[in-house]
Amino acid sequence: MPSGAALFGNTASRSQNKNLVEFKAGRMDLKGKMVHPDKRKGLIYVYQSSDDFLLHFCWKDRQSGSVEDDLIVFPDDCEFKKIAQCTTGRVYLLKFKSTSRKFFYWLQESKPDKDEDLCRRVNEVLNNPPTPGAQRSTPDGDLQNLLNNMSQQQLMQLFGGVGQIGGLSSLLGTMSRPSTSSRSSSSASASPSVTSAP
């Protein structure tokens, strides 16, 4: 019961974290100075952990569901950019600024005209992550916010008036007035050919 989870805290697993951005992409393997495509269908997604609020840049195999890259990313420490030298595919690089780590991917989204927007969105999320607790509003979050802002009297009225028609409407009427005892809220594209790495 989702609304119950909102009342008593979120004991959710990773699957309930919302991805900030996601798109179909394959991996590229760096061998020497050349990158070679891994032909598996994949998915890149970025999410912010609800436990520690760290950003994760992930790649998973869409067929097996296996997550092979789960990289913790700090703001302004990496850049996701197109590799202009590759003329046979849509190859992108995730490059870390503080180390020499490089990860190559090839886009598998069916619409190449959206590539630039995807790249911009990835960089925006990685370098300007949402502040903790400022994630997108959900119905469960709205309920939690409503309950956190109710006074003890309003809560008693809500739960004590279950089954009475006038209870909820009178409660909603008192919500608009300030209360002196309010609680504080504690399709896959063709794979690129071998390309030299920058």
UniProtKB/TrEMBL annotation:
PANTHER family: ADHESION REGULATING MOLECULE 1 110 KDA CELL MEMBRANE GLYCOPROTEIN, PROTEASOMAL UBIQUITIN RECEPTOR ADRM1
Localization per record: Cytoplasm; Nucleus
Span of domain Pru: 15-129
Low complexity bias: start-end ranges: 176-198
Extent of the signal sequence: none
Keywords: Cytoplasm, Nucleus, Proteasome
Protein name per Swiss-Prot or TrEMBL: Proteasomal ubiquitin receptor ADRM1 homolog
Keyword Protein biosynthesis attached: no
Alphabetized Gene3D superfamilies for the sequence: Proteasomal ubiquitin receptor Rpn13/ADRM1 (2.30.29.70)
CC terms in the record's Gene Ontology section: cytoplasm; nucleus; proteasome regulatory particle, lid subcomplex
Pfam family, one: Rpn13_ADRM1_Pru
Role of this protein: May function as a proteasomal ubiquitin receptor. May promote the deubiquitinating activity associated with the 26S proteasome.
Domain of life: Eukaryota
Gene Ontology terms for molecular function: endopeptidase activator activity; proteasome binding
Parts forming coiled coils: none
Family note: Belongs to the ADRM1 family.
Spans annotated as Disordered: 173-198
InterPro entries xref list: Rpn13/ADRM1, Rpn13/ADRM1_Pru, Rpn13/ADRM1_Pru_sf
